[in-house]
Amino acid sequence: MLFALVTQVVVIGLACVLVPVLSRRTTPLGVSVPSDHVRDPQVRGPVFAYQVVTAVLTALVLLASAAALLRHTTAPEWPFALAPLFVVVGSGAAYVWQRRRIVAAKEAGGWYAGRSVGISARITRDDGEAAPAASPPLWPLGIGLVWLISTIAYGAAIYASIPDPYPAHTDFAGNPTRWVDKNPFEVFAGCAIGVGILILLGALAWWLPRRPRRGLPDGDAASAAARDAVHLRMTETILVWIGPPLGVGIGVLDLLAWHGRWGTPTAIATAGMLAAVMVAVAVPVLRATRPLREIDAGARPGADIESPDDDRHWWLGLFYVNREDPALLVPKRAGVGLTLNVGRPAAQVLLAAMLGGLVWALVAAL
Amino acid sequence: MDIVIDPLSPVPIYQQVRDRIVEAIAAGYLVRGDALQSVRTLARAFGINPATVAKAYETLRGEGLVGTNAKSGTFVAADRDRPVATPELMDDWRARLFTLLAEGRAKGLPPQELTAACARAIDAFDTDAPPRKE
């Protein structure tokens, strides 16, 4: 369990520290700034402060959790499962706190006064000049899918020999903590959910390069486009390569449960799956930081028009709220990936469902 | 090809979309038969209300510059080398041109400047044009 805790806290803390590197250069800490102000001390100072606070917070949470775990081996586990959440919430608080300094400097300095701003988009449906968007190879997701479907088939074949009652939940040591009467829903829910998640990941990976491109020039359209391309490749890679560890991991955990192999084997399998998923996310992110830095270093502020100051649509610089925008998913302002347009009713329903699921999972874990 | 709008401009967004398409046709970047993005796709790309894009397309349809059918969607219906304007459309255009030039004159621009500005705009349509498609 200590291994799982350390891995999660370190990776999440590192991801939070890297948010400014991964984000668009003209939206430091979620604040729109013109390209020629990106390197101002009034911008770099708060960004650096955010990174330092996040790094220190991560170290403190790690030390405190590890010390408590080592000291109280029989303590309840759920506080330690919340340690990564402390890092995220604390990092978010630092983000909101420091971005206010940039907002204040922008308003006091009138940074956007008299600027030419704009958004570009393709007006023609078949340009004939650019190759059609291509999805990334989806075969890694196929590995996870094949494993899960094979596991389900195997489980159906040996269903009679699966333990009854069946363990509905295990602790971090891999020991069952809640039992239910054996039924197909409980036995196959894990694999079924895994199949659903992998199909969703595949659909996202297929759709991402095909979504309408919103051209934000950021003062240098060529650099902005290059950055978008790096982001797209990174996101596609994450979506596709999360598949194998997730699919295989879920399948292995169910196989262990079906054969009554609780305790250490389950704990090792859980920790291994979490570590493999973290690696599948961390490697593309780390590989993208260098090209992103090089693109930013070569950017020519003022070469093109600036992107519009649309802070009014970004609550706290984190949550996109725009009822006029029909897009359900838009690029995040902080870090990599997509975020929901909370101004859309469909997004509000999705968000409520996700939060409800999270609360249910936390309550079930207690 | 791409067009650019400014969501914070005092010019209505539908007007900006309409104007950019008109300028692209005038410069030869868009020719008769070119397929335009659907209302929803363009709205998603710009992050604007689909009704705004629909209004821009509707305005262009009224001017005879774009057309729509169930099979092809919205497409360019005009070409700078092939006149399509009806007498009514031309009268409307001349009236708007008269008012626009009057606006410049009312603000003190001398006649020579108005003429030169018109000439520069017409030159730009040909100077910026892409190579002719065979």
Q: What is the structure about, briefly put?
A:
The complex is a heterodimer of chains A (366) and B (134). Chain A is built from ten helices and seven strands. Chain A has 366 residues and is mainly α.
Mean pLDDT across residues of chain A: 88
- Strand line-up in the sheet with most strands of chain B: 2-3
Helix coverage percent of chain B: 40-55%
Element string of chain B (H = helix, E = strand):
EHHHEEHH
What does this structure look like?
The complex is a heterodimer of chains A (366) and B (134). Chain A has helices spanning 2-22, 41-71, 78-81, 83-109, 139-157, 184-207, 221-241, 243-258, 264-298, 345-365; strands at 119-122, 166-170, 176-180, 314-315, 319-320, 329-331, 338-340. Chain A has 366 residues and is mostly helical. A two-stranded antiparallel sheet of chain A has the order 2-3. In chain A, a hairpin with a 5-residue loop joins β2 (166-170) and β3 (176-180). Chain B has 134 residues and is mostly helical. Chain B has 5 helices and 3 strands, in the order βαααββαα. Chain B has helices at 13-26, 39-46, 50-62, 87-106, 111-127; strands spanning 2-5, 66-69, 73-76. In chain B, a hairpin with a 3-residue loop joins β2 and β3. The longest helix of chain B is centred in the last third of the chain and has 20 residues, at 87-106. The model of chain B has no long low-confidence stretch (mean pLDDT 89). Chain A binds chain B through residues 116-127, 211-215, 305, 308-310, 322, 324-327, 330, and chain B through 1-8, 20-21, 24, 30, 34-38, 40-50, 52, 73. β1 of chain A pairs antiparallel with β1 of chain B.
